[in-house]
Amino acid sequence: MINYNSISQLAKTANEQKVTISQVVLNDQAKELGLSEEQLFKQMEEMLDVMIASVKAGMNKDTRSSSGLTGGNAYKVNQYSSAGKTIGGSFCTKAIAKAIAVAEYNASMGKIVAAPTAGACGIIPAALLTMMEEHGIEKKAAVMALITAGAIGMVIANEASISGAKGGCQAECGSAAAMAAGAMVEMFGGTNDMVADSCAIAIKNQLGLVCDPVAGLVEVPCVKRNAGGIMCAICAADIALAGVKSVIPVDEVVTAMREVGESISADLRETARGGLATTPTGIMLKEKIFGK
Length: 292
Fold this sequence. Notes:
The protein is built from 13 helices and no strands. The chain is mainly α. α6 (123-135) runs parallel beside α9 (173-187) and α7 (139-159) packs antiparallel against α9 (173-187). The longest helix is centred in the N-terminal third of the chain and has 22 residues, at 37-58.
């Protein structure tokens, strides 16, 4: 079994075998779980199908959370994108809409894939589905890329954290951005080393991101941070695909992520005792939902 404690080692192993990271992981995890590669692929395909369904459901203009804090914004961004006049172009705005859609659907108690967490659930679906739609990537390649994303997430979980309560939002949206970046690089035909570099770049750009949910709910600012996370992932993927390497190796970046997370105040790690949660509006919204 592969020891999932190094992203660079995953890339090295794949290079030695002259295959993608996803193929190495598919073979390894199938053996570890006592499944055939076909069975494990099918399980991952089912997860992708849930992601596809959650994007579609979250695009409904009438989607609303029970708190009333979020809902309907994915529809607005999607309409804006469809009009064809945007700053970031079709790919970026459609990805943003999808990321918001899944996060809003989660807030309205819809079925999502925690990838790697519910708080960051929109980033990877946005990456995979937009690549499929905008670049004509086949579903099989998207499933394989999801396997690569999962392996990256396993390393981060083992060596740092994917929990906002432990490491701030960098551990959730930052991890998801790294996973999404690596997945997109593989889908676009990048090398295994480019996958690793994209992860490093994505995490570096999210280092120190705090977790400060208004009223303690995974809605504000979480939904829009999913939008920020997919943009970070796209940026990191394109930089890596251009041949730009991360000056700090990816595994050292993950270690730094853990250290930064440990240094973040407890008030800024999902406790809703700081940041946006304790702004005047944040406090007013909490009292409106839960009472004084």
